[in-house]
Amino acid sequence: MLGTSSFRAKNARGFTLVELLVVIAIIGILIALLLPAVQAAREAARRSHCSNNLKQLGLALHNYHDTVQTFPYRQGGTSGSGTNQDEGSGFTMLLPYMEQGALYDQIKSALTVGATTYPPYGDNAADASAYPPWQVSIPVLLCPSSPQERLAGNPAKALNHYGFSGGDSATHITPRAPSSTTNARRDVRGLFGYQTRRRIADIADGTSNTIAMGEIGTSRGGRHFKGATARGLGMGVIDTPNTCLLQIDQSGNYLDSVPTVILNRGQRWARGAVQYTAVNTILPPNSPSCTYENDFRSIGQYPMTSYHPGGVHVLLADGSVRLVSETIHTGNLSLTDPKAVSGPSPYGVWGALGSIAGGEIAGDF
Prior knowledge:
The structure is a single chain. The chain is of the alpha+beta class and 365 residues long. The chain is built from nine helices and eleven strands. The N and C termini lie far apart (82 Å). Residues 112-127 have low confidence and may be disordered.
């Protein structure tokens, strides 16, 4: 018996320290190998969710068009005291078509003017910050890949991760100098603009070749270009759009020489001003935003941005959704912003997809 016990004692030993370290190292390597795959799978799910949101917005736009016989404006409404001061958002008009009929009815009940074609009580009113409807998050307007923090201005305002396309226009996208209200209303080259109501019949280039909406990635804070706007850079960023690309460093942060950086892109769905609800198709996807004036309504570069690797989702006017690469052809970005209201876009395939009647052949993208 003594011999048997001694034999068992010699063979019933545990792992050595070296063996434990080897096992831990192997587990660590496996986790390191699996983690990117898990993260990629999660991003794929978020990207799919984001794409589905745009499909729902496309359906809402077409249902609205079927009812009203036009698409909504991006920015507009009624002017004067107690109204939305021409800064109402097209999203408000789409609420009944986004399963938000009760919210729309609440807004409509506050009507103080006689025009029933415009949703009332705009975000620009002095007491709008306390108006409950503007604080409501609309699920279909939120992309899970983008930050969910409300940063700019009054944090009670709810976010928006999608913008109406003004096409390949920097000067006619908003009624601010050196443009004019008339020019902005008449000459915007995209599907949406200031007090501009387009019809499907106006899309001469074809609904499958024209962008209706695209993504706006909101800010995580700091001076990173996504979700932020460099303000007051003068006509240089309009006349030669690639000037805006030079305003960020290699890490994507605005240079210290840029005096005013505002974290306001997509920070208010209820306000139709360009920095909240507009995109244009001049600079490639995932480029910085730059404005002429130090104002949230200024003309400027408002590119689409997202937190998806390599590109952004766009909603085409036919209701389909595509992921567009940030390397898409953008033509000559040293050219002056086109003041013409017709003709081919100088900004390559990207500009052609933004214009509704440029006469271009967009080709593959």
